[in-house]
Amino acid sequence: MEQKDNWIKNTILFLSSQTISIFGSFLVQYAILWYITLTSRSGIMMTIYIISTLVPVLFVSPFAGVWADRFDRKKLIMLSDSFIAFVTLILAILFYTGHGTLWILIIAAAFRSLGGAVQMPVVGAFLPQIVPSEKLMRVNGINSSIQSLVMLGSPMLSGALLSFASIEAIFFIDVCTALTAVGFLGLFLKIPPREKTGEEEKINYFRDLKEGFRYIGSQRYLRDFFILLAILYFLIAPVSFLTPLQVTRSFGAHVWRLTAIELIFSVGMMLGGILIASWTGFKNKIHTIILGFLVFALSTVGLGVVFNFWIYLSFMCLAGVAMSLFSTPATVLLQQRVDESYIGRVFGVMTMISGMMTPLGMLFFGPLGDVIPIEWILIATGLLMVIEGFILLGNKALLEAGKPIEESDK
């Protein structure tokens, strides 16, 4: 009973600290976004800002995976939060003393992204350390819902704060939330350190990274899953980046419409997280992943064919639900199946793929959206996702990996 209570208590403490940390981070993220938009009114500056937040993820996340496999994951999370807080504190002081500029904001955003690039794979590797395997789906679903709720409220709160407070005040809020999150982990979350082998004492980053890629290549289900994942992230670029432009062209340039599609997608993700946390999906995780895959694909097609804005919002909400139905069991699949000594590197590669393929998709589909109707692009990418979903359904290695562990090990 004590062990059961311990994992529940540790999970609540960890998710609470992550919620506090993410809340502050999203406040600053949107504050910077709104500030650059309102100050520069420049698409080029916005592009530079987006690139500055993506490039660190591409280069750092694989190495962060190595750290997650070699060092204390709780300390890594605390260090990354502390690093982000330190960068934000410097940013707040610069703006408070009148030395803040757009370029300083962009440089700070890049450094903050470094901390986030470390944190993402480490958190994915850390949860199986404190949560029993059979509870991972439920806990990840709850975590997804909490993050979606934070994403839902952060843009509105950040915009409201900017309307009557200075941007440095928001920076100071993030510093406080980050330090609170670190305090939660350091003072209250007590877990035994992972056992280290003699091999783990000698760290060679490039060798360890190479071994991680070799491990992924040796596991057919991982190799196939990451290939399909890369294609998916490439194909979802139009939904991620072109739908605001589509709404402006098709339904009118109204700010409330653009806000509505962002909020309703977050609502959908929150509902999807609640659904997967209560239902926990099909017995075979791949079947749940395919369900989310196909619903997202059909929602994408729906976004390309409807001419009523309220029906459009319904499809956007459904896409959010589908994203949680896909991403949560995909995360749990890796947490349960990947060898403990490689799990950080696997999540690092997963983070790298997500950070690389969607921008690449935007580089392809963005200019295309100025040549042909965005609706055609959404219909085409949605249909390609349907085909990919059926390819996934026929992949024997993935279907075997998706079975409950006790069943597939027989």
Structural notes for this entry:
The chain has 410 residues and is mostly helical. The protein folds into 2 domains: 189 residues, Growth Hormone, Chain: A (Up-down Bundle); 199 residues, Up-down Bundle (Growth Hormone, Chain: A). It is 86% helix and 0% strand. The protein has 17 helices and no strands. The chain is globular and about 55 Å long. The chain starts with a helix and ends with a helix. The mean pLDDT is 86.
Strand content: under 5%
**C-alpha termini separation:** 29 Å
CATH superfamily of the largest domain: MFS general substrate transporter like domains
Structural class: mainly alpha
Detail the poorly predicted runs: none
The overall strand count is 0
Secondary structure: elements and pairs:
Layout: H1 2-40, H2 43-70, H3 73-96, H4 102-130, H5 136-164, H6 167-188, H7 198-201, H8 205-218, H9 220-235, H10 237-251, H11 255-279, H12 285-305, H13 309-337, H14 343-368, H15 374-393, H16 396-401, H17 405-408
Helix pairs in contact: 1-2, 1-4, 1-5, 1-6, 2-4, 2-8, 2-14, 3-4, 3-6, 4-14, 5-11, 5-13, 9-14, 9-15, 10-14, 10-15, 11-13, 12-13, 12-15
Summarize the structure.
86% of the residues lie in helices and 0% in strands.
Sum up the structure in keywords.
Growth Hormone, Chain: A, mainly alpha, about 400 residues, 2 domains
